[in-house]
User: What shape does this take?
Amino acid sequence: MKILSTIEEIIISDHKIPVRGEILILSEKKESTCQTISLTKSGRLVVLRFDQEESVSGIFPFFNPNLAGLNKMCDYLLFYNPRLRDELFVFLCDMKAEPAAKGFEQLRAAHIFADFLVKTAARQLKDRIPIIQYRGLVFSAKASTGKGLTHPRNNAYKPISNELGYRPLPCKCSYNLSALCY
Assistant: This one.
């Protein structure tokens, strides 16, 4: 998929996580109650990580770091093209110790930023772009564990806005990334 290659090309390597094999492990700080998530993929994936411990100017060098809430960002952006599909899914992933509802500001900010990256890649590409779908995933130590989490059913996303839905998911679990698309 050309747009995925272009997204990978325009981002500097400081924020990219190399993806090898079919399993991706998302991780948080050692003292976090939401430490690891395992994602199985069956398509092409580009992963960006935003470490909140580093200087905020490394992510948003043109924003004032003293304004509260301005520099919010989720932990990971996953640009995923499932095998044999002409769609790009952008997963906005946030790992939380508290309930999932506390991650909305990070998801909203990540959605705006991811949309900017996709549109910038489309401008560079000068070609038809596929259908782009955004999905918020809030992994929380306090999310309920129930049936169907590794293979969620359709309409499992709760709306945050007209363009973005989210799904609260428990930490320390494994998920099929293609199943999270729908």
Residues 147-152 have pLDDT under 50 and may be disordered. Residues 2-181 form one domain. The beta strands are 16-17, 23-27, 36-40, 44-49, 76-81, 87-96, 131-140, 158-159, 165-170, 174-176.
